[in-house]
Design a protein that fits this description.
Blueprint: E1 17-22, H1 35-38, E2 50-58, E3 64-69, E4 73-75, E5 81-83, H2 84-91, E6 97-103, E7 112-117, H3 119-123, H4 136-141, H5 143-159, E8 170-173, H6 193-199, H7 201-214, E9 249-250, E10 260-261, H8 279-290, E11 294-298, E12 301-315, E13 318-331, E14 335-338, H9 339-355, E15 363-366, H10 371-378, E16 382-385, H11 391-400, E17 406-410, H12 414-420, E18 429-433, H13 438-447, E19 452-455, H14 456-464, E20 481-486, E21 496-500, H15 501-515, E22 524-527, H16 534-546, E23 549-552, H17 569-573, E24 577-580, H18 582-598, H19 601-615, H20 621-628, H21 630-634, E25 643-646, H22 653-662, E26 666-668
Parallel strand pairs: 7-8, 11-23, 15-16, 15-17, 16-20, 17-18, 18-19, 22-23, 22-24, 24-25, 25-26
Antiparallel strand pairs: 1-2, 2-3, 4-5, 6-7, 9-10, 11-14, 12-13, 20-21
Length: 680
């Protein structure tokens, strides 16, 4: 930890707090073509430490609490600092909050929040003086509703030990969902703070002005018995000796700033198994070890059902009703390919790439994973990542900066590719999967003669005809550059983080060391986050190494309510392991609570009793509660979940505890692109 004196954090304090710095085999050494950042000692120190920008705290049991990001620390007019992400993670657990962005002016003494209300819960708490027939847009403008949401949020803050300056001074309510398409959240559902605060700039200013005129009577008074500051302790109920809990962190002396896991105190983990140095080694190992076992599963789209719905929104200061089209997918059952089949397909694609002249000096942009990424990696061709939510400008940058010779994507995204190709002169190959419209392929061919368009099946067929000797001399080493993984660009232009094979393999080794004891080949993992997200990428590679089956899903088809004439991905695949972001886990928690509230008084009482018995771990009763009552709650996620990871920003302690008791053991963690490793 490094001191952050301006915010009052000290690495030698009690408890030790400061900026988290990391050094090890999984940590990147550079940003792509950014010498200004690579020689910046506020990012890379002279002795090789990467300054993560996270604010952390060492706990007595050896765990680290991640409190926030330095960029989200705001100094108020009083001179006090508040951590915006931490506040959001707590306020998001309020039953009236569907999503939230906390904003604080340096001229104010308290923050305010832009909130999307949870409509269903809000309507159960409407004051009698408020007309219940109103749409959500009208309710958001009601003063009594704003006061209700503000009160409930601040009660949640009080229950979590917030200091007075961390309570909300006012709220701005909006009925409109924040989606990746709107640019207000990224592909991993992380809010884009700057864009949201700019969009609501006028409302923020008006709310601060109104609150200042009303004075401080709307704030809560806290009892003197509450101790501050309160941080979210990252803990787990999975506590084998020397892996988690007391004694798991190796510390050389009292107050030492540098710590590592006790089991790795003599040598950091660099591989999940001796001799595996590259991701290509991982693919070959999995094929040898797990053979014909199902490796990847997916669902085809059978049909798309359309439904028209009336939506009320504000236009020109007036509420109007508009017709909105909703899409619901009808999906097939899961189809699978084995570990051996994956190795074969990767080899065919790799030979196809070599046939078309793709060299180890080239960079291939991958907007759709994972077979193509493994194919490129196996012939030492660097891949660069791109999120479809970056838009045309972001895609253009991620193609031009590394001078990509090709791009692989899904047929649905080819229109976007077609529009950016005229501004990306280095691109010569467009590889796609799925069914493309002939007109789109014609448009791409018309951009310039040098562009070759290849379907993934055609590339495989070409490679199948080439001898395996075609790949001689192209196999990567640990030092080979594997990937240029671009950040989301939430605070500026996306930055390319350079990752080698050894970086990623070390990350896989770290996850396997921590969680391998609790996983086996009979387990299954549902993947639905963007595959170019580092958290998802590392976890999937780890589970691939362990021989687990990975099923691919979609955010929009996870639950039964979001599909038609079929089960949602959760119920159809029945995973035992999941990775999610806090917004998803908050949604699941609220869905469980909503179902309970809709039940009879007897059913609600049974749930409360079962929850209390399991929370207290009462011998006999805890197991009975789990099997007799809570099993119905678990059925919503397929009934087999035994472990869940939460990544991105911090998960509220309240949600972590609730889901760990009612659903599954929750391991909050953070995975930074520059570090590669989920930290729990």
């Amino acid at each position: 930890l490094l001191d952050i004196p301006e915010a009052g954090y000290s690495a030698s304090g009690s408890p030790p707090q400061g900026e988290v710095c990391i050094r090890g085999p999984s940590v990147t050494k550079e940003y792509y073509k950014r010498d200004d950042l690579n020689h910046d000692e506020t990012i890379f120190t002279k002795d090789g430490w990467l300054r993560t920008g996270d604010v952390g705290q060492w706990n007595p049991d050896g765990t680290m609490s991640l409190m926030d990001r330095i960029k989200n620390l705001v100094e108020l007019a009083s001179g006090d600092y508040i951590a915006l992400e931490r506040l959001e993670s707590i306020y998001r657990s309020c039953s009236l909050v569907a999503n939230i962005c906390v904003y604080a002016s340096t001229d104010a003494n308290k923050p305010i929040a832009i909130i999307i209300p949870h409509e269903q819960n809000l309507r159960t708490m409407l004051p009698t003086s408020v007309d219940p027939s109103q749409g959500l847009s009208s309710l958001c403008r009601e003063k009594k509703i704003q006061e209700l949401v503000l009160k409930e949020c601040n009660v949640t803050g009080k229950n979590n030990g917030f200091q007075p300056m961390e309570t909300l001074q006012a709220v701005v309510l909006t009925p409109d969902e924040w989606t990746p398409e709107s640019g207000l959240v990224n592909a991993a559902q992380k809010i884009q703070r700057k864009k949201i605060s700019n969009l609501f700039a006028e409302e923020i200013e008006a709310s601060y002005l109104e609150a200042s005129l009303l004075g401080s009577s709307r704030s809560l008074i806290f009892p003197s018995s509450v101790s501050f500051p309160l941080t979210l302790t990252i803990t787990s109920k999975v506590t084998p000796n020397a892996y988690f809990g007391v004694g798991s962190a190796g510390v050389n002396s009292k107050g030492e700033k540098c710590r590592r896991l006790a089991i790795a105190k003599d040598k950091l983990v660099t591989q999940p198994q001796e001799g595996l140095e590259t991701t290509t080694d991982l693919v070959d190992y999995a094929a040898r070890t797990h053979g014909t076992k199902d490796a990847f599963g997916w669902r085809d789209i059978v049909d798309i059902h359309h439904r028209e719905k009336d939506v009320k929104k504000m236009v020109g200061g007036k509420e109007v009703t508009e017709k909105k089209q909703w899409q619901f997918f009808e999906l097939s059952d899961y189809k699978y390919i084995s570990f051996l089949e994956i190795q074969t397909r990767v080899s065919e694609l790799a030979r196809g790439l070599v046939h078309y002249g793709i060299t180890s000096d080239n960079v291939f942009n991958i907007a759709s994973w994972p077979l193509m990424s493994h194919a490129c990696a196996s012939v030492s061709t660097t891949i660069a990542t791109a999120y479809d939510t970056l838009g045309e400008a972001g895609l253009t940058r991620s193609l031009n900066e590394p001078e990509c010779v090709g791009i692989f994507t899904n047929a649905d995204l080819l229109p976007t590719v077609s529009r950016v190709l005229k501004n990306t002169p280095s691109v010569r190959f467009v590889v796609y999967d799925g069914e493309a419209k002939a007109s789109v392929l014609t448009d791409i061919s018309a951009v310039r003669e040098s562009i070759t368009i290849i379907h993934m099946d055609e590339l495989r067929a070409t490679g199948r005809e080439k001898d395996v000797e075609t790949l001689a001399g192209r196999r990567p080493t640990g030092d080979t550059r594997l990937c240029i993984m671009y950040t989301s660009g939430s605070t500026g232009a996306p930055k390319g983080v350079v990752l080698t094979h050894s970086n990623i393999v070390a990350a896989v080794g770290g996850v396997q060391t921590l969680l391998g004891k609790h996983l086996n080949p009979d387990d299954s993992f549902l993947a639905y986050l963007p595959l170019a997200h580092i958290h998802e990428y590392v976890v999937e590679l780890t589970l691939f190494f362990l021989g687990m089956t990975t099923g691919f899903g979609r955010v929009k088809t996870l639950t039964d309510a979001s599909v038609r004439k079929c089960k949602g991905d959760l119920a159809a695949f029945r995973p035992s392991v999941m990775v999610g972001v806090p917004a998803m886990w908050e949604t699941i928690r609220e869905g469980i609570l909503s179902k309970i509230r809709e039940g009879s008084v007897v059913a609600q009482s049974m749930f409360r009793s079962a929850y209390a018995a399991k929370q207290a771990n009462v011998p006999g009763l805890a197991q009975l509660a789990d099997s007799a009552v809570l099993s119905k709650v678990k059925a919503a996620t397929g009934g087999r979940l035994k472990l869940a990871l939460s990544g991105g920003v911090a998960l509220s302690h309240e949600t972590q505890e609730f889901l760990s008791v009612a659903l599954v053991t929750m391991l909050p963690g953070v995975c930074d692109i520059t570090v590669q490793k989920p930290h729990t």
